[in-house]
From TrEMBL, chain A:
One of its GO terms (biological process) is transmembrane transport. It is found in: Cell inner membrane. CDD domains: ABC_NikE_OppD_transporters. Its main location: membrane. It comes from Phyllobacterium pellucidum. Keywords: ATP-binding, Cell membrane, Membrane, Nucleotide-binding, Transport. This is ABC transporter ATP-binding protein. Pfam families: ABC_tran.
UniProtKB/TrEMBL annotation, chain B:
InterPro entries: AAA+_ATPase, ABC_transp_ATP-bind, ABC_transporter-like_ATP-bd, ABC_transporter-like_CS, Oligopep_ABC_C, P-loop_NTPase. PROSITE patterns: ABC_TRANSPORTER_1, ABC_TRANSPORTER_2. Residues 6-255 form the ABC transporter domain. Keywords: ATP-binding, Nucleotide-binding, Transport. One of its GO terms (biological process) is transmembrane transport. The keyword Transport applies. PANTHER family: DIPEPTIDE TRANSPORT ATP-BINDING PROTEIN DPPF (PTHR43776:SF6), TRANSPORT ATP-BINDING PROTEIN (PTHR43776). This is Dipeptide ABC transporter ATP-binding protein.
């Protein structure tokens, strides 16, 4: 059975120019022990769908879905309090800006232990122990000393490691990573991706990777959903997607990668969509 | 041998970090003796991670910040802005494009004014001439005359970067410093902007200094590549040399860390994973 | 190439359309705050009252009706329908004086805000742009001004300059001006390092152009908010000075001065103190509500751009 299953999810926002549909009728599911990547460009609504699941959208958003179940619980039927309880414990999320995601006024140790105190109801000593263990797991050297550091004393990569430690503190069943490496350097990105995938395999979590980077998808995903302007374009396992993409937009995206350049010019999505439309005789 | 547009000889840049009220001032060396030459019409890519001094070097080349020591020659003439004032002729030779297309355009300035400003301040052209030139430039970068009277917030990131490129080209510079010009853009838009840059380079015989952290983009656009690590140049050569046979261990690490999006790598990864499970 | 250039007529259309769109977007965010809309309505009403005072007022503000001293409002026993809100101690119609008083209050607000904003913004831009000793000098002076209780400082200044409405306005402007200077300085400092400023510098813009043409227009949103809030502050302080006898001098129908004149009748004739007090309260409240609404409407805009 799927860990998270969503059918026909739509999210709209009230704006000054009327209702804006950020996500339109998306179905998705993630299994335990699976890495699902959601790829799309900015404005494709890739983050919004996950924020809707987490209940993190502002009040101007209207969320509708035919069904939304997590680990056997029907999320639509729950009160927001019940939902927060489940979501806070069993689903964790990490964001793009690691330095901004940590509170600059408190030490890393305090923030990590706070999560343990609230969700796991551990006492002081056990918390300390567990915090050190978690920092070790995410590969931070000398975790005992690091517990007393403030976020600004650490690099972006280390902050992201701490965010991951906080996310896995309660042994979540599902981890959602929203562009976790976009703000990081390539060498750090590699380390963080390896860490995420390693932890996912070790703990048997489901992992949803939201990204715009085809490279990140290629390096991490089992299954991929390609999203464009709030709609799902294609869903396939990663090898199939890269080997024989079915959808025109996916093909366009892949051919826009500089490493796939043929000759002097890069083919762009706009060119591609135009060609597709001309070939098929329909508008894209 | 074609003409050398830009040359750096042992360029060094120190920053002074105030040590607060009682601490001592510290000096941080951001660029540690960089030397290079760049021919007209070529692209030099400066690659490195954040904090490696590549943007600092870019700002020195664009005459925004002075070098602490070392020589900078533009079209053979030495220039040090700490001592000399920048003449309008020199100013028009070098222009820069920034990474963030949302921060580099004045939100209260219409596109027409954005493009007209360099002409207004550096030439004696009339309002009508400025307007004509701005309109022509808009068409050249793939926008239209109807965009002349709009404000930056009405444009997408890619369109804004086109406007920034247009602004940089208004004074017909010979050298363009591109500081991560596509890293804030979506993949499909990135391809369009890279194509545009290539076209403009051919048309105006422009020389590019392309600062980037993205090796796949560098491989696509560069003629020569310079890899920087903590303010030092650890690798400098033609693109093919550097990509085929990297010498320094940092360069090798960088290549190894770059995600591979080809089918063989994915297949290898998945098989490895299956074996582990 | 030139033949591709569109004629000016179609170009003018998107321009005005863009402005209309901006205005309607602004109104959308402003109108979310219901209090702000009410405040705005009251403010517009007050402005109309001030402009059409001679038409609206039933009597001349200085006309004394000797036979009707301290007449209560018309709905009370002993009231006279000639004087809707009653009369004061020398028989002047309270309603007419309040209507004319609106002119003074709005005039005071306008002048004070203009003076303090212009000087404060110029000083703030200079301090934020040049930093160093210019900044230190300007900001220490501002700190000294801010160290005094505002009303006390205004009183001292008026005492030096001599009592009177004009001097009171200068004093209040001086007291309010450091807030603008500080706000401008902070905004300029954060805008100064933005890339568009560097780009403009590279295009050859000089200091003056960078300061006032490139940077300043992008710092306006918080200044507009501060301006409205200072507007109400100015009215309040002018009323306070008037009440203390240091502002507008009798028989000027300024609200604070009216309160001062009515002090001794506070127990006998409630209306002579209540109505000017209410007028001040309502005006200040309305302007503050508008200020809050402006803050809500302008701040997210800053974030989005």
């Amino acid at each position: 059975m799927a860990l998270l299953e969503i059918k026909n999810l739509s999210v709209g926002f009230d704006t000054s120019s009327g209702l804006f549909m950020a996500v339109q009728g998306i179905d998705l599911h993630v299994n335990a022990r699976e890495v699902l990547a959601i790829v799309g460009e900015s404005g494709s609504g890739k983050s919004v769908a996950m924020l809707a699941v987490m209940g993190l959208l502002p009040k101007t958003a209207t969320v509708t879905a035919d069904s939304m179940t997590f680990d056997g619980h029907d999320l639509l039927a729950m009160s927001s309090n019940q939902r927060r309880e489940i979501v806070g414990r069993d689903v964790a999320m990490i964001f793009q800006e690691p330095v901004a995601s940590l509170n600059p006024c408190f030490t890393v140790g305090f923030q990590l232990e706070e999560v343990l105190r609230v969700h796991m109801k551990m006492d002081g000593k056990a918390r300390r122990q567990r915090a050190i263990e978690l920092l070790k797991q995410v590969g931070i050297p000398t975790p005992e000393e690091r517990l007393n550091s403030f976020p600004h004393q650490m690099s972006g990569g280390q902050c992201q490691r701490v965010m991951i430690a906080i996310a896995i503190a309660c042994n979540p069943k599902l981890l959602i990573a929203d562009e976790p490496t976009t703000a990081l350097d390539v060498t750090i990105q590699k380390q963080i991706l390896d860490l995420l995938v390693g932890l996912q395999a070790k703990h048997g979590m489901g992992l949803i990777m939201i990204t715009h980077d085809m490279g990140v998808v290629a390096e991490t995903a089992d299954r991929v959903i390609v999203q464009y302007k709030g709609r799902k374009m294609e869903e396939a396992d990663v090898l199939t997607l890269f080997e024989s993409p079915k959808n025109a937009y996916t093909r366009a995206l892949l051919s826009a990668l500089p490493e796939n350049a043929t000759g002097d010019r890069l083919s762009t999505v706009a060119d591609f969509m135009k060609n597709e439309a001309a070939n098929a005789g329909v508008a894209p | 041998m074609s003409e050398i547009v830009l040359e750096g000889r042992n360029i060094i840049r120190d920053y002074h970090v105030g040590g607060g009220l009682f601490g001592k001032d510290k000096s941080v060396r951001a660029v540690k003796g960089v030397s290079f030459t760049l021919e007209r019409g070529k692209t030099l890519a400066i690659v490195g991670e954040s904090g490696c001094g590549k943007s600092t070097l870019g700002r020195i080349l664009t005459l925004i910040d002075p070098q602490t020591s070392g020589e900078l020659l533009i079209e053979g003439k030495p220039i040090n802005i700490a001592k000399d004032t920048v003449t309008p002729e020199l100013r028009r030779k070098v222009q820069i494009i920034f990474q963030n297309p949302y921060g580099s355009l004045n939100p209260r300035q219409k596109i027409g004014e954005v493009l007209g400003e360099p002409l207004l301040l550096n030439t004696k052209k009339t309002a009508a001439e400025r307007r004509d030139l701005a309109m022509q430039m808009l068409i050249k970068v793939g926008l239209g005359p109807e965009h002349y009277n709009r404000y930056p917030h009405m444009f997408s990131g890619g369109q804004r970067q086109r406007i920034a490129i247009a602004r940089a080209l208004m004074l017909s510079p010979s050298l363009l410093v591109l500081d991560e010009p596509v890293s804030a853009l979506d993949l499909s838009v990135q391809a369009q902007v890279l194509n545009l840059l290539a076209d403009l380079q051919d048309e105006f015989n422009l020389t590019y200094v392309f600062i980037s952290h993205d090796l796949s983009v560098v491989r696509y656009i560069a003629d020569e590549v310079m890899v920087m690590y903590y303010g030092e140049v650890v690798e400098y050569g033609t693109r093919d040399e550097v990509f085929a046979n990297p010498q320094h261990s940092y360069t090798k690490t960088l290549f190894a860390a770059t995600p591979k999006a080809d089918v063989e790598s994915i297949r290898a990864r998945i098989e490895k994973k299956k074996a582990a499970a | 190439m030139t033949n591709e250039v569109s004629p000016p007529v179609p170009l003018a259309a998107p321009k005005s359309a863009g402005r209309m769109a901006r205005l309607s977007e602004f109104w959308f965010y402003f109108s979310v705050n219901k209090g702000a809309v009410i405040g705005f309505g009251v403010l517009v009403f007050l402005m109309l009252v001030a402009i059409f005072a001679p038409v609206l007022a039933p009597h001349a503000p200085y006309q004394q009706y000797r036979e009707a001293l301290l007449t209560p409002p018309s709905w009370q026993t002993g009231g006279n329908s000639m004087f809707l809100l009653g009369t004061d101690a020398v028989g002047r119609d309270l309603l007419s004086r309040l209507i004319y008083g609106a002119r003074f209050s709005l005039f005071i607000g306008l002048i004070v805000v203009t003076i303090s904003m212009v000087t404060g913004v110029i000083l703030g831009v200079l301090a934020g742009y040049f930093r160093g000793w210019v900044d230190a000098l300007i900001m220490r002076i501002m700190d000294i001004i801010l160290a005094f209780p505002p009303l006390l400082l205004a009183l001292v200044l008026v005492a030096i300059l001599g009592p009177g409405l004009f001097n009171a306005m200068i004093a209040i402007a001086l007291v309010l001006q450091p807030h603008f200077a500080r706000l401008t300085r902070a905004a300029v400092m954060s805008e100064k390092n933005r890339e568009y400023v560097v780009a403009s510098k590279l295009a050859g813009a000089g200091h003056l152009r960078l300061m006032f043409k490139t940077i300043l227009p992008n710092c306006l949103a918080p200044l507009i908010v501060q301006g409205t809030l200072s507007f109400s502050n100015a009215i309040l302080e002018a009323a306070a000075l008037g009440f203390l006898g240091m502002g507008a001098q009798p028989p000027t129908p300024e609200w604070g001065t009216m309160l001062a004149e009515a002090r001794e009748f506070i127990l006998r004739a409630w209306w002579v103190v209540t109505f000017p007090g209410l007028a001040i309260l309502i005006t200040v409240l309305a302007i503050n509500l508008v200020g809050d609404g402006l803050r809500d409407a302008l701040d997210p805009k800053l974030k989005r751009s």
